[in-house]
């Protein structure tokens, strides 16, 4: 089989490379010439464990090609996956310009039947817009070539994208044509051999599934974060509550970890978009509005605790931040709690030194030298009044406490991810605040 994948961002590159891995001939298309040049040599523009060698391997085996010409890629192709960006409009809804540009160009150049698949997360109703735009382009040419549209949302997690693609929990295919469903089922067959289902449905349902999945996960997180806030007031421990409820299989034990709020490229954007779609349909998704506001509040909960500890005066305080990315194993800082924390700390006049195993370049790109950067996690602690742990990178889990205490001015830790045991903090003599658990103070 032969497919085209348009857009070599995160989703497109992972999708194209993983299909190539199964022996499909894949042409990835991007308008960025330099990016295409790099990709041809196996150099990838994003940080994703395992992706670079896989790209290189498939390029070397002549199964994965990169081009700037969409037209060239369409020859004899069975399916075109549209994985271009959908940046938010001013009102927060996705801008479909790039998606529809691709649909138009496909219509201008296609010569054979193909299924045109939306892979980017797009608003409900987008596949129909793609169909209309493509048909108009065909009509302009005065030709009548058969095609179908389909929705095939992705559920990849950054840092686990390859594994998620190769061993998906499920594959959702939204079509209204048996032919299109057959092509997509054949393409995905290698990934469902171990019992993971392909779930076929109509197109709007597939489009909504993606939003509903991410919004449900975001809801679980905000719910637990607010329960954590209550735990602090009534003297309960959110970790115990989590274990207590998570063992009920109806609730499940995933995505119920309290923390400093969710970030990233998907949850914040998708929650907003679903609220928007709902509002436009004269239905207020109140539950998601609450999820969003709880998350905003949660992002700065560490700073509030810090303010409380220092009697509302952070002026000139030296604060160390461990972790800048929105979660471990990525350099992605989109909507990262670290950004809200830094903004609030700066407004209070604190001096900040940050350290992150991979996101420091990204941080410099975003916020320049508005904070200082340390070469390693310990350097960040020199003379620090407090350490804020923002991202739970593995290397922060078992640090050398003696070195930390030697370096820090105050032995104060604010843990936004609950990675340390209360008893250990007590034994080590730290003042320790975390999320939804009792504060620990040395006797
Ligand atoms: C998410 C979805 O998991 C994925 O299916 C979708 O395709 C894209 O969005 P991703 O954004 O890469 O993936 O990150 P994920 O690992 O899901 O974490 C999202 C955020 O939730 C992070 O900020 C994380 O710290 C936070 N989180 C997650 C919690 O605060 N508590 C949890 O229990 C789980």
Layout of strands and helices, then pairs:
Layout: E1 2-6, H1 10-21, E2 25-29, H2 33-40, H3 51-60, E3 64-67, H4 70-74, E4 79-82, H5 97-109, E5 114-118, H6 126-141, E6 147-151, H7 161-166, E7 171-175, H8 178-188, E8 198-201, H9 203-234, H10 238-246, H11 267-280, H12 286-299, H13 301-309, E9 318-322, H14 337-347, E10 351-355, H15 360-367, E11 372-373, E12 386-389, H16 401-407, E13 412-415, H17 422-428, E14 431-433
This protein binds uridine-5'-diphosphate-xylopyranose.
Uridine-5'-diphosphate-xylopyranose binds next to helix 9.
What does this structure look like?
With 443 residues, this protein is of the alpha/beta class. The chain folds into 3 domains: 2-199, NAD(P)-binding Rossmann-like Domain (Rossmann fold, 3-Layer(aba) Sandwich); 211-297, Rossmann fold (3-Layer(aba) Sandwich); 299-433, Rossmann fold. Helices cover 43% and strands 14% of the residues. It has helices at residues 10-21, 33-40, 51-60, 70-74, 97-109, 126-141, 161-166, 178-188, 203-234, 238-246, 267-280, 286-299, 301-309, 337-347, 360-367, 401-407, 422-428; strands spanning 2-6, 25-29, 64-67, 79-82, 114-118, 147-151, 171-175, 198-201, 318-322, 351-355, 372-373, 386-389, 412-415, 431-433. An 8-stranded mixed sheet has the order 3-2-1-4-5-6-7-8, with helices on both faces. A 6-stranded parallel sheet has the order 11-10-9-12-13-14, with helices on both faces. Helix 9 (203-234) packs across helix 11 (267-280) and helix 11 packs antiparallel against helix 12 (286-299). The termini are far apart. The site of uridine-5'-diphosphate-xylopyranose has 19 residues, from helix 9. Catalyzes the conversion of UDP-glucose into UDP-glucuronate, one of the precursors of teichuronic acid. Residues 320-422 form the UDP-glucose/GDP-mannose dehydrogenase C-terminal domain. GO terms for molecular function: NAD binding; UDP-glucose 6-dehydrogenase activity. This is UDP-glucose 6-dehydrogenase. It is an enzyme of class 1 (oxidoreductase).
């Amino acid at each position: 089989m032969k497919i085209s994948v348009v857009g070599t961002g995160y989703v497109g590159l992972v999708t194209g490379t993983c299909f190539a891995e199964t022996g499909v001939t894949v042409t990835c298309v991007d308008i960025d010439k330099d990016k295409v040049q790099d990709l041809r040599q196996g150099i990838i523009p994003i940080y994703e464990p395992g992706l670079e060698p896989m790209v290189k391997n498939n390029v070397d085996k002549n199964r994965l090609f990169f081009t700037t010409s969409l037209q060239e890629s369409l020859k004899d192709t069975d399916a075109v996956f549209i994985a271009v960006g959908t940046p938010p409009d001013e009102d927060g809804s996705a801008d479909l310009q790039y998606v529809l540009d691709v649909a138009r160009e496909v219509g201008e150049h296609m010569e054979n039947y193909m299924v045109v698949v939306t892979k980017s997360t797009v608003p409900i109703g987008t596949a129909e817009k793609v169909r209309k735009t493509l048909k108009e382009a065909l009509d302009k040419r005065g030709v009548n070539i058969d095609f179908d549209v389909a929705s095939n949302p992705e559920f990849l997690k950054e840092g686990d994208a390859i594994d998620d693609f190769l061993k998906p929990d499920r594959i959702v295919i939204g079509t209204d044509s048996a032919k299109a469903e057959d092509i997509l089922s054949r393409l995905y067959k290698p990934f469902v051999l171990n019992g993971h289902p392909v779930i076929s449905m109509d197109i709007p349902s597939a489009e909504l599934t993606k939003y509903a999945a991410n919004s449900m996960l975001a809801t679980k997180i905000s719910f637990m974060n607010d329960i954590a806030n209550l735990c602090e007031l009534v003297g309960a421990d959110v970790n115990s509550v989590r274990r207590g409820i998570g063992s009920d299989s109806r609730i499940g034990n995933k995505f119920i970890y309290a923390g400093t709020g969710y970030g990233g490229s998907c949850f914040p954007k998708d929650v907003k978009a679903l609220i928007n779609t709902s509002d436009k349909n004269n239905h207020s998704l109140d539950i998601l509005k609450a999820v969003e506001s709880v998350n905003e509040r949660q992002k700065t909960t560490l700073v509030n605790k810090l303010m409380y500890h220092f009697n509302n005066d952070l002026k000139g305080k030296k604060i160390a931040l461990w972790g800048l990315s929105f979660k471990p194993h990525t350099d992605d800082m989109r909507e990262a709690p670290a950004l809200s924390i830094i903004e609030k700390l700066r407004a209070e006049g604190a001096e900040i030194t940050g350290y992150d195993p991979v996101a420091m370049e990204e941080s410099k790109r975003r916020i320049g030298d508005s904070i200082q950067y340390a070469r390693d996690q310990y350097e960040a602690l020199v003379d620090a009044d407090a350490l804020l742990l923002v991202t739970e990178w593995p290397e922060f889990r078992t640090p050398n406490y003696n070195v930390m205490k030697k370096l820090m001015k105050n032995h104060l830790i604010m843990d936004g991810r609950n990675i340390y045991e209360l008893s250990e903090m007590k034994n080590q003599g730290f003042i320790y605040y975390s999320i939804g658990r009792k504060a620990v103070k040395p006797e």
